[in-house]
Structures are given as structure tokens and as C-alpha cells.
Structure prediction request, 256 residues.
Amino acid sequence: KARTIVFRGMGASERLQTLAAERAALLAEATGLQQRLTAVQGRIAELTKAAEPKQAKAAQNTKPQKSASTKPKSAPSEGGAAGSDAAVADDKSVQTLKKLGVPHRIFEHPAAGTIADWKPHMDALAPDARLCKNLFLKDKKKGMLVLCTALADTNTDMKFISNRLKAKNPRLAAPEVLNETLGLKKGAVTPLACMADPEKKVMFVLDKAMVDVGKTHELLVHPLSGNHISVALKSDGLLAYFKEAGHEPLILEFPE
Prediction:
């Protein structure tokens, strides 16, 4: 606390003596405080040193937590699906590709029901492969069923399809028809479903641009398992698959 020195009525000599006494008192207090500070710092150092072994032991016993990841998994293969057998063990389409010796790759990723959902996964897993879209159509007047597979950026003009197939009014078929005919769900349509159509109820159409680019680049389609898996293969392998299924797809050159 601040102290007030009163000099009233004191001579010069008395004032000097009073100030000298005050100075001595202040120095004594400062010395005491310094000693206390040194003692506190020493105690802190002792406690810190004693705690170091415990902290090191606790750090050794703490296992780092693995962060959850949604990164897609890939399993490259030549004529098979090495590393992804569990995912496609019961998939007839993939097993057929393996039986034929068709070079292909299998990729696992989150379910992707649209090109927009699918593209980010495949840009990371197979950036040089080409995405393929599918249109499952039904002519309401003639009852014709058509599965058209094309490059994602091909202009699959409905009027052009109607004229070339001589269909009256082709429209996207209802999900129920898709499931009953090929056993597929909406968002998981694939040309590999020709294997599920032994009675040839469906006409399969392929984009000529897709077939051409597939000679040098892999094409991406889903297997029968669903849209959480992708198959990368070239067009000669796809055509060999169609032949094995007993289907001869119609190849159309779509207008630009």
C-alpha cells in the first residue's frame, strides 16, 4: 500500500532522516518479495519436473484416433477384379467379364444415382475413363423397350431415337418396368443388364462415339450389383460381353 510521509513541522535534517528510514523499509520489503518470488519459481520447477514422466507415459498410452473417411476405394485388375472379390462375388456381370477374360477394373465408391453424383468419384479414381449414361425407354403405343447407353456428354435427342427406331412416342419407362424387366433400380441402369434379358425383351442401343472412344479409353458403367460400384472396360470388352449374353446392340451415330 502507498504510504504518505508528512513533513509538516520538520526541519531539513529531520526530513532527510525520515526519507532515509523510508528507503530502508522499502528495500527490506523488496528483498522479502524477491525471496518469496524465487521460492515460488523453485517450487514450480520441482512440480513440472515431477509431472514430466506421467505426461510422457500418458502420451504413449494414447492411441491416435482414425478419422472417418469416405474416400472411394479402387481395385485395379486385368481380366478380373483382384482386391474387390467380396464386393462383386455374386455379381453375374462381373463374373462373366472374368470368365471371358475381359480386362476391366472395379471401383467401390458411395452410391451415385446421377452423372453429377458419380463424376467426382470417378474423376478421383479413373480420371482418363469416360462416364456413360443410360436411358431406359418405353414406347407407350408399341410397347417397345429400349436401353440406350451413350457418353455422358452425347446429345441423346429423343426425336432422333424415335425416328431411327421407328418408335411412336418413346419416353423414360417407369421404375417398376425397369425392375420387372431387368431387375435394376432407378439410378443404377447399365448396359451389362443385357445378361439379365435372355428373352430379349429389350433393344440395346450404343452410342457410336462411345464405342469409338472406348477403343482407346476405358468406359465407365455400373455392374448389376448397383451404383455403388463402377466397372471400367473398353468397348471391345463390352461388345464381347453383349455377344456372350446373346444380344447384338444397335450402334447409332447421334447428331452433335
In short: The chain has a mean pLDDT of 85. The CA atoms of residues 59 and 155 lie 60 Å apart. The chain is about 40% helix and 20% strand. Helices lie at 12-61, 85-88, 92-100, 115-125, 158-165, 175-182, 208-213, 235-245.
